[in-house]
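Study this one:
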Amino acid sequence: MGRRDVTRLGLADSVRGLIQSVQSAYVDVVSAKDTLKLAQENLKTFDDITAINQVRFKDGDIAEVELMRS
């Protein structure tokens, strides 16, 4: 095997490694976006529950301790 062959094989290996790195980074970005979206949805749900419980507390429907738990 000559120097050119070794160089070509090295380049091909580098290209494969780069492609794998880019694909892995893409999957990481998609996963991070999904995680962020879920966290935002959870925060909205939490805020909604807290708002409802504040109204319930003001109406005397729940004790302050229940409000604090939420």
Summary: The first helix runs from residue 3 to 58. The two ends are 70 Å apart (CA to CA). Residues 3-69 form one domain.
